[in-house]
Amino acid sequence: MPKLTIDGIEVEVPAGTTVLQAAEILGIEIPRFCYHERLSIAGNCRMCLVEVKPGPPKPAASCAMPVAEGMDVRTDSEMARKARKGVMEFLLINHPLDCPICDQGGECDLQDEAMTFGNDHSRYGEMKRSVTEKEMGPLVKTAMTRCIHCTRCVRFTTEVAGVPEMGMLGRGEHAEITTYLEQALDSELSGNVVDLCPVGALTSRPYAFTARPWELRKTESIDVLDALGTNVRIDVRSGQVLRILPRLNEAVNEEWLADKSRHAMDGLRQQRLDTPYVRKDGQLVPASWEEAFAAIRAKVAGLDGSRIAAIAGDQADCEAMTALKDLMGVLGSTNLDCRQDGAKLDPTVRAGYLFNSTVEGIESADALLLVGSDPRWEAPVLNARIRKRYLAGGFKAGRIGPAGRDLTYPVEELGVDPSVLIEIAEGRHPFAEVLKAAKTPMIILGMGALTRTDGAAILAAARKVADTTGMVTEGWNGFSVLHTAAARVGGLDLGFVPGSGGLDTRGIQAGCASGAVEVLYLLGADEIDTNALGKAFVIYQGSHGDAGAHRADVILPGLAYTEKEATYVNTEGRPQRTKVAGFGPGEAKEDWKIIRALSGALDKTLPLDSVHQVRARMAEINPVLGTMNAVTPAAWEAFGTEGPVDTAAFTTAIANYYMTCPISRASPTMAECTRVFINGNQERTGTDG
Amino acid sequence: MSIGTRLLTMLNGEFVGEDAHGNKYYQERTKRLSNPLYRRKRWVMYKGKAEGSKVPAEWHAWLHYTNDTPLNARSKAWEQPHKPNLTGTLGAYVPKGDDRAGGTRAASTGDYQAWRP
């Protein structure tokens, strides 16, 4: 452990630490543009120059200089300041003076540093260099004249996103950052280059010229568009969500955010349900809450509980599911399910539906078996974590499922159907040896494998793989289920599943078609086949007018995730809470309050008068939901039903990454992404193309 | 119009002209002072309520000694007929987003598009 002195303070840091990191430990901030904690060190912006003794009598780039015993570093000496001033002057030679029309204005690193190290005037009289704009797709807007060549975006796309599509061409004054083929960045993490860009060269296209950072009210919240539970910051002006940025959480998303979670927020102002509706003579007409409740009461009163059913959707929050579960209980119904995709998950054993290894645990895994899962689409940020593990070396991945999809790290294609999984479970497959040889092997079981009719048998086979290859040991559980819906684990934790003799999603749908189920309560469930619900009386509660609302007989307008304080449990079983960033439209109300009010209208008043009572009830059902932001390891017990498996190939759980929920389906930006990335309508609008 | 103005008009008023709205313009018949800098007083007898904005531009120029004679009204094709201040009347200006002006306004933050079946 070398000992060194920084600005007169002695510090001992591990060998291999850079001077800049050592200064960071002491709380001394050295200005930088190109250095980033999660990217490789480039050392090309020269802003982090410091004076180092002993050594040559010139400043050294602290980001790329490893510490050495007895070093004496001055970060604020005359020499360091003069050197940085010089660097700043060079950077500003070719940087346009368009801060007033630049989207980065107010949150620009160059602007901030120029306040400290910039000169009051320019000594440069010649023309500034101009660079043509680059086409980077519907999410990233470019103004490459502003680029200072820090290459953060190049390093991000190459290292973290794993799509080497960006690079620097030319040298000297002619150096340009570009996408090699002048086409959209084919990555689900492309939005992050906007955050990384220290200047306004890469900005968010949907957010362009919309707001200034000081106009925005920032709310720290949770994303629910995938099951990862990414920590986000929601920026709001006048009640309208203008952008969503990632928030640091080492255990979940580090500091990345997937494109859908970042840009689907413009769907929050499209297709909103802002008033209750009641179907009269085949037409949905706007109604008051009283009329809507009266219509439900007229249908439900006196009806036997077994003829009522409820399905919770992909973004239903735990509070609403608690209230709805209790309401179903007092109505005498056991027909409720939170697995609207029909996944054959075993709700009785928590370890059977969690991402037990945890997201952070991926980094300590040394072999991985993907079964019917495409993490690149199902949880792009989690996929980046797997790639991070792959880059660290000594990691082997195999996949059973649709082949050919690039996951940004090499995978061994083991086969496409469940028979391979059985072979591995029985030790007849070579990959079983890989898993057995690994110290901490893991299996990621996707919804593509579990939503099949033989899902329960596949779950049992996956469990057998985990048992026979030693995936579950003291302190390590490699059995990981990757969910596609933010509400799923919460629903399973709350037991929002069929009770004794109750129907599951498929049973409810069949019951609706046959007339056995007369009243169906959809809590934001749009992914089921709403045309096959027969003559059932459908109550739809949700935020958007999607498939469920079109079929509904009564619509109760709820709130979207940015408008309510609600609990969601991510795929690893980590309960997290969203915060109110803006108010909902029109008459829309918080979801659990709607159910509580409905229970009163049905004369079955639930004892849930405040959010505290709801949360206490949640914790009573499952104590895990009382501990926020922490993962509670689940006990390894028997789950799954062994049985014959189908030989049909696995399919992917997601057909289109950019449109998976009512919010993203309503979003114009996601529609544009679908047009470009899914349908392949690349526009060659670059000035050279 | 005060009694004083009426008296002055009767005793020493010289009728100069009348605008399109029926306002009548007068000036002093005789110079009251011999001072060469003294200008003959000019005034208007409004038709109806006394309201300064009723005076059209061509007479405004004369009234304020900008011109010796009233300007030629509507000499240009693009000139609009003069309108007095309409504040407080039904013809008052209302912004585009106001319900009285049709209620259509440009999109602003906080807007959302509601779903209609």
In short, what is this structure?
The complex is a heterodimer of chains A (689) and B (117). Chain A is of the alpha/beta class and 689 residues long.
What this model shows, in words?
The complex is a heterodimer of chains A (689) and B (117). Chain A is built from 21 helices and 28 strands. Chain A has a seven-stranded mixed β-sheet, sandwiched between helices. Chain A has a five-stranded mixed β-sheet with strand order 2-1-5-3-4, sandwiched between helices. Helices cover 27% and strands 17% of the residues of chain A. In chain A, helix 8 packs parallel to helix 18, helix 8 packs across helix 19 and helix 11 (418-425) packs parallel to helix 14 (455-468). Chain B has a domain at 3-63. In chain B, 15% of the residues lie in helices and 13% in strands. Chain B has helices spanning 3-12, 57-63; strands spanning 13-18, 24-28, 42-45. In chain B, strands 1-2-3 form a three-stranded antiparallel β-sheet. The mean pLDDT of chain B is 88. The chains are: A alpha/beta (689), B alpha+beta (117). Chains A and B meet through loops of A and loops of B.
Helical residue percent of chain A? 25-40%
Number of helices of chain B: 2
Number of strands of chain B: 3
Oligomer: heterodimer
Extract low-pLDDT stretches of chain A: none
Secondary-structure element pattern of chain B, one letter each: HEEEH
Sheet with most strands: strand arrangement of chain A: 14-13-26-25-24-15-16
- Cα(first) to Cα(last) distance of chain A is 54 Å
Tell me the structural class of chain B. Answer: alpha+beta
List keywords for this structure.
heterodimer, A: alpha/beta, 21 helices, 27% helix, globular, B: 117 residues, alpha+beta, 2 helices
